[in-house]
Amino acid sequence: MKSALIIGATRGIGRQIAKTFSENGYRVCVSAKTTESTEKTPGSVYDVANEIVQNGGEAFPIKCDVRSDENVQATIDTCIEKFGQIDVAVYNAGAILWKPVVETPLKRWDLMNEVNARGSYSMVTKLLPHMLDRKSGRLILVAPPIYNRFFKGKTPYSMTKIAMTTLVHGLANELAGTGVSISAIWPATVVESQVTVVQKIPPAYYRKATVFADACLGIAEEKSEKLNGKALLDEDYLRSEGVSDFTKYRADPDKEPPRMMPKELPSLLVAEENDPPLSSNL
């Protein structure tokens, strides 16, 4: 039986990813910083794990503050000890502030960088020895594709998320042929979350979190390495796998939400793509 580690699994997308993986035969390590549900941050690792168990799945909760290397290592070690191996890990933890540079204090950027870029790097580097030794594993980071429009109005946040995408593109070169792959995934439309609840966004403007969770499951189940290094959008990836009816993902059953991501993304490849890299001795 396969096992999955979901970091950032207490609400919204993360909670649904944990549930979807469980519903499809995975044992799930439900991990996040939140261990107590409050009005401001409803849901905890215990709530999600209990929900999975009550529905017949196998899960256990563990607190993980991704800003602590020790916490990340302990989370991974505990998950391996509990389930024997980690077949897939999804990094959904995130810190967000969509403000321009002039309105983003360094302290807030530090927080976003620690949670987004550094936290994902910590998880990946601590999991790689385990997955490479097994010659099998899927790493999934919730991070966007790289294109200029994404930066507008939120450059500081974008710096920390694009760093995650750079990790995906770069590490993929090192993982080729190992049986381990890394991919990024991002929603094509707004997806239901605590933000949509707090901001009272009308359901016509977003999809259910199941669309994103189904895309993550598809990446995890991919037998080949064709998704290694790819920065995917949930809708486009699912369509590429034959999904054509998205009505089941509508939050408002009568309306298809508007797309927030470009229909086409620029290629990052260059003519010299396959030239040998510069010497590391420089």
Folded structure, characterized:
Residues 247-282 are annotated as: Disordered. Keywords: Oxidoreductase. InterPro entries: HSDL2 (IPR051935), NAD(P)-bd_dom_sf (IPR036291), Sc_DH/Rdtase_CS (IPR020904), SDR_fam (IPR002347). This is Hydroxysteroid dehydrogenase-like protein 2. With 282 residues, this protein is α/β, with parallel strands linked by helices. It has one domain: NAD(P)-binding Rossmann-like Domain (Rossmann fold, 3-Layer(aba) Sandwich). It is 39% helix and 14% strand. It has 8 helices and 9 strands. The protein has helices at 12-23, 45-54, 69-83, 106-134, 155-175, 194-198, 210-221, 234-240, and strands at residues 3-7, 27-32, 59-63, 88-91, 137-142, 180-186, 190-191, 206-207, 231-233. The strands form 2 sheets. It has a 7-stranded parallel β-sheet with strand order 3-2-1-4-5-6-9, with helices on both faces. The protein has a two-stranded parallel ribbon with strand order 7-8. Strand 1, helix 1 (12-23) and strand 2 (27-32) form a beta-alpha-beta unit. Helix 1 packs across helix 7 (210-221), helix 3 packs parallel to helix 4 (106-134) and helix 7 (210-221) crosses helix 8 (234-240). The radius of gyration is 18 Å and the shape is globular. The mean pLDDT is 96.
